[in-house]
Amino acid sequence: MKKKGSLSTALKVFLSIFFSVVVLLIIIDFFIPKDPHFRWEEYPSFYAVYGFVACVVLVLFAKYVLRPIVKRKEDYYEF
User: Fold this and answer.
1) What are the boundaries of each domain within the chain?
2) For 5, how many CA atoms within 13 A lie in the half-sphere containing its CB?
3) Calpha distance 53→37 (Å, rounded)
4) Which of 36, 47, 54, 75 meets the CB 3.0–4.6 Å disulfide criterion with 41?
5) How far apart are CA 55 and CA 59, in angstroms?
6) 23-48 b/e (C-beta count within 10 Å ≥ 16 → b)
């Protein structure tokens, strides 16, 4: 019987390949020459951090600003 919370073999293989590719891309980022327009673009993994922060900001904005505007009462469609 499988333990609760254990990962399947296929999922373990997928995650190990995924994280190996992520680490490889981070290492490659140090060796690719960049032509930055701004100083902060020179930092390693700047675009990864920028994308992550932008995603988190969008989710929080949608949750706390847009949701109260769009949300309706539970019995909105009832007559």
Assistant:
1) 9-70
2) 0
3) 20
4) 36
5) 6
6) eeeeeeeeeeeeeeeeeeeeeeeeee
Instruction: Output the CA torsion sign for 33, 34, 39, 45.
Output: negative
32-70 residue pLDDT tens: 888 889 998 888 778 889 999 999 999 999 999 999 999
CB-based contact 41:33 (threshold 8 Å): no
Q: What per-residue confidence (pLDDT) applies to 76?
A: 83
**Residues constituting the chain:** 79
What are 3-30's pLDDT values in tens digits? 666 779 999 999 999 999 999 988 888 8
